Amino acid sequence: MKEAQTDPGPGREAREIVVVGGSAAGLFTAAKVASGGRPVRVLESLPTLDPSPRTLIVTNHFRQQVNGAAGASIRNEIRKFELYTNGRSATVSLREPDLIIERSRLIRALAEEAGHAGARLDYDTRFLGLSPNARGLHVQVDRGGQREELYAESVVGADGAVSRVAKAAGWPPVETVPLVQAVVKLPKDFPADTTRVWFVPDDTPYFYWLIPESPERGALGVIGEQGRDTKKSFDRFLEKKGLEPLEWQGARIPVYRNWVPVRRTVGDSDVYLVGDAAAQVKVSTVGGIVTGFRGAQGVADAILRKGRRELRALRRELSTHWLIRRALHHFQQEDYCQLVDMLNDSARESLGAISRDESTRLLWNVVRRQPRLALLGLRSLLLGRR
Ligand SMILES: Cc1cc2nc3c(=O)[nH]c(=O)nc-3n(C[C@H](O)[C@H](O)[C@H](O)COP(=O)(O)OP(=O)(O)OC[C@H]3O[C@@H](n4cnc5c(N)ncnc54)[C@H](O)[C@@H]3O)c2cc1C
């Protein structure tokens, strides 16, 4: 590999904020920091702007985070959730619809927005490592097979769950779990405004879901703990439901257990993490778009010296989801049956009125309206795996 060196000069490049990863969290950060008047360069290892498609569900909070262009990634609206477990069911009607978005459209729109804000996007550029220098940070990259060195004032790692930036700056690795989705043809009677969730604790401590992206097609998914077992259970579930996979989508996603401090210092310079790289994922439902954007906003605020309010709020949010996950993680079949049976009208109303991106308010409201749910959760938290 040929060794090349980009001369930093005393000007623009030496003051650049380098964002590693041109996906949801990285492009969101780049747009915010560039809009704040700072020079930004995004390094993305993919050869071109060609993100893989993925069907995602987010709360309505997404609309407040993105502008019109990214809003065009919305494909469908969800007004109801149906929860199933062992022959029982409960329906929750949402006051504000959830949104089904298409990841590749979202990333294209975010790339355009970051570009308009003045960020430079470098594709086919893989981050290899970083080290301190007198002016800031040396960033080693592989650009189309050529080794180069760039100079940065700060680096933001937005390079996903297995972050090379995190490793280079000394963060410990985050734990990940496999997530598998199959795009399927929806059954004839399936309502296009409804998401179905199945709790099958013999297969997974998480759940299965089916989210319709149109009246004809939807994404059936599952989160598991072991890749091979998860795929086996998933294949059985598909067969049981009589659904044919048309396309596969999947990757490992981080499990949030503790707040990952988003900043470390290398030499005299700052390195930050956002999105999956910092495990900014709601671990109760394993959704990472809205929380990744919140982490990105928080880091952009920190770079632009606008305070830490967003990061503090995100930390509270992620901790509440971790508490909920710890309670649910040890649920057995009888616990899920009780959970669904206990969802009285009043508790269901709270679940439909408050979004899961306001989890503390949601949790307190549900528990106030159905205190037996708190006992069920507490028992599971205290007893752990029985
Ligand atoms: C199948 C599936 C379904 C999901 N469903 C939902 C859902 O319904 N709702 C929801 O909210 N979330 C969902 N998630 C989670 C969500 O997609 C992620 O939390 C989110 O996309 C993370 O974005 P990110 O930008 O942090 O990381 P990523 O999307 O992982 O992006 C990392 C980027 O960094 C680049 N990169 C990596 N290494 C390097 C390097 N060394 N140099 C340069 N570039 C590099 C990669 O190419 C990539 O573009 C789902 C995830 C999966 C896998």
Q: How would you characterize this protein structure?
A:
There is one protein chain. The protein is α/β, with parallel strands linked by helices and 386 residues long. The chain contains twelve helices and 17 strands. It has helices at residues 24-35, 61-65, 68-71, 103-116, 164-169, 227-240, 289-303, 309-329, 333-342, 345-353, 359-369, 371-383; strands at 17-20, 40-43, 55-58, 74-85, 88-102, 120-122, 125-133, 136-143, 146-152, 154-157, 176-185, 194-198, 208-212, 217-223, 245-254, 263-266, 269-273. Strands 3-5-4-12-13-14-11-15 form an eight-stranded mixed sheet. Strands 6-2-1-10-17-16 form a six-stranded mixed sheet. Strand 8 and strand 9 form a beta hairpin. Helix 10 (345-353) packs antiparallel against helix 11. It is globular, with a radius of gyration of 22 Å. The N and C termini lie far apart (55 Å). The relative contact order is 0.15. Residues 20-26, 43-46, 54, 56-58, 126-127, 158-160, 164, 179, 181, 249-251, 253, 275-276, 281, 287-289, 292 line the site of flavin-adenine dinucleotide.
